[in-house]
Amino acid sequence: MHIFLASKWTKAALFLLCLGPLAAIVLPFLTHAIIPDPLQFIQHGTGDWALRFLVITLTITPLRQILHLPELIRFRRMLGLYAFLYACLHFTTYLVFDKIFDLHEIWKDVYKRPFITMGFLAFTLLIPLAITSTAGWIRRLGGRRWRILHRAIYISAVCAVIHYYWLVKSAVIRPVTYAAIVGVLLLWRLGDWLAKRPRNDSRVQQRLAQ
Ligand code: HEM
Predict the structure, then answer these.
(1) N or C: which end of the chain has fewer CB within 10 A?
(2) Pairwise CA distance, residues 186 & 177, whole Å
(3) Residues 136-188: pLDDT tens digits?
């Protein structure tokens, strides 16, 4: 398993696999398939996958610790960037086809429709994370500050789930399932932080005593 996960081919295969949902969205248009509501089709497809990739990215750290597979970390940045890609496509669909570049209409929407406000927040929070995802930015910010900044992915995921929940009128089962998963991941992160805290505190005390 370790060799499989460490292989560059595994990473390349995952990269291609992550393009699958995009192909599933684009192909029906290329083959002139009948799509009753094309805008909704793209908006829902890209929104669904942005949220799925966000959740998958968040599961990497717990999985690598629970399964003792440190190599999983190699895929985290790529999966996070795919979340951002699908969120960009989702927002672009809204900007181009829904609002036809009418920035005034968009601001009105962000201000007046709570589910759009949440989506907008979820998306804007991902922008600095995508920009600072490179090794150069980790060096520039320093590991600690970079890690603190990248915790914003949890806030983005929470906003995205609320965005989804507020959008659906009655079929709440899917957003509620996402909420439960994000909740468990957040609790796990909190537990991990609390478990490591005494060690961190004693390290700080040792340093102060020197
Ligand atoms: C990380 C950011 C975002 C995520 C993860 C996300 C996720 C989602 C999801 C899961 C859906 C529902 C799909 C379905 O029903 O199958 C959705 C729908 C939608 N989202 Fe987002 N979204 C994000 C950002 C945004 C932004 C920035 C906007 C616009 C400013 C936006 C506008 C919409 C609209 C208009 C719909 C469809 C509403 C309808 O069907 O009436 N979203 N989004």
Answers:
(1) C
(2) 14
(3) 999 999 999 999 999 999 999 999 999 999 999 888 999 999 999 999 999 99
Q: What is the pLDDT of residue 2?
A: 85
* 117 CA from centroid of ligand 1 (Å): 10
| 47 CA → ligand 1 middle, Å | 5
Pocket test for ligand 1, best of 58, 164, 169 (most atoms within 8 A of CB): 164
| Phi-psi group of 33: left, alpha or beta (phi > 0 → left; psi -120 to 50 → alpha; rest → beta) | beta
Distance from the CA of 85 to the center of ligand 1, in angstroms? 14
The preferred substitution site among 115, 167, 174 for testing ligand 1, maximizing ligand atoms within 8 Å of CB, is 167
Query: Could you read off the pLDDT of 31-68 as tens digits, one per residue?
Result: 999 999 999 999 999 999 999 999 999 999 999 999 99
**Among 88, 170, 74, which Cα is nearest to 122's?**
88
**Short-list 120, 109, 99, CA closest to 47:** 120
